[in-house]
Design goal:
Elements lengths: L1 H23 L4 E2 L3 E5 L2 E8 L2 E2 L3 E2 L12 H13 L1 E7 L5 H6 L5 E2 L7 H4 L3 E2 L4 E10 L14 E5 L3 H12 L4 E5 L2 H9 L5 E5 H10 L3 E5 L6 E4 L2 E2 L5 H15 L1 H10 L4
Parallel strand pairs: 3-6, 3-7, 10-11, 10-12
Antiparallel strand pairs: 1-2, 2-3, 4-5, 8-15, 9-12, 9-13, 9-14
């Protein structure tokens, strides 16, 4: 009797272990690090820096806590076409590429420009939006071009393409002091508090701040190489790069991308 009871308990234990092992077999990562509970439900984690309206931001005025914006819509639209749910993870801009490299996120949409330096560490999709860098300053102390930054302090976001441009301006014109901040709102506040004289910000984002704050104005840098573009970043050799490029091309051809641009950028112009 004891032997029979022991065998029954052992069998139940082995069966339970087998069931638990089978349940865990479908979990893990695939498709460039995308997590998946089963074949029908796949999740991608999108890294972003939600301080860059209208690309990505949190509308605190409405009491929202989740990031919204053009990049968020674009990622979720393409993700849905490919059979993924997209979850957004907000972090500082300078930490986005390291997050990709350490598999903390599967892709990055953050108005990021595919520079040669960045391409050494991550792969990029085709460019999905063209932009231009602008100088934002106060109306009562306007700075109209890069040359007028001589003897001034200009702020830029840490690890951004604007930081690279500011360094080039500092090489071209003596007396330009460059300082960095992690978030765009910090640059605006530093300027309004007279701790910096100007900030270099992408044109669409700059327009949003200037339209909302009549004490600010913006000007072209006057430099021929200030036109930039935004692309989606992926880990090196990720299958997702080709998948997203394929759907991005379709969206460009059928007008879906233009509709998203109008939705998020029309009131910025």
């Amino acid at each position: 009797m004891k032997l029979k009871k022991w065998l029954s308990v052992t069998a139940i234990g082995l069966l339970t272990a087998g069931v638990l092992a089978a349940c865990g077999a479908g979990e893990g990562t695939s498709n460039g690090g995308a997590s998946s509970d089963d074949k029908d439900k796949k999740v991608l984690v999108m890294g972003t820096s939600a301080d860059y309206p209208p690309f990505e931001y949190i509308d605190t005025a409405k009491g929202d806590s989740e990031a919204i914006g053009f990049d968020v819509d674009l990622a979720k639209t393409i993700g849905k076409k490919l059979g993924y749910d997209v979850q957004v993870k907000d972090m500082e801009f300078g930490g986005l590429i390291p997050a990709l490299q350490s598999n903390k996120v599967d892709l990055v949409l953050a108005g990021m420009t595919p520079t040669e330096k960045r391409k050494k560490n991550v792969d990029f999709s085709d460019v999905y939006y063209e932009a231009k860098n602008m100088i934002v300053s106060k109306k009562d102390a306007p700075i109209k071009n890069a040359e007028e930054l001589k003897g001034k302090t200009v702020g830029v976001q840490t690890s951004s393409i604007q930081a690279d441009e500011a360094k080039e301006i500092a090489k071209e014109f003596d007396g330009v002091n460059v300082t960095t901040r992690d978030r765009i709102p910090e640059l605006i506040q530093e300027m309004k508090s007279n701790r910096i004289d100007a900030a270099i910000i992408e044109d669409t984002v700059a327009k949003g701040y200037v339209n909302k704050d009549k004490s600010l104005q913006m000007s072209d840098t006057g430099r021929p190489d200030s036109s930039k573009g935004s692309a989606i970043a992926f880990p090196k050799d990720s299958k997702l790069t080709n998948d997203f490029n394929r759907e991005l091309k379709k969206m460009k051809e059928n007008g879906e991308l233009d509709k998203l641009i109008v939705k998020w950028f029309d009131d910025q112009k």
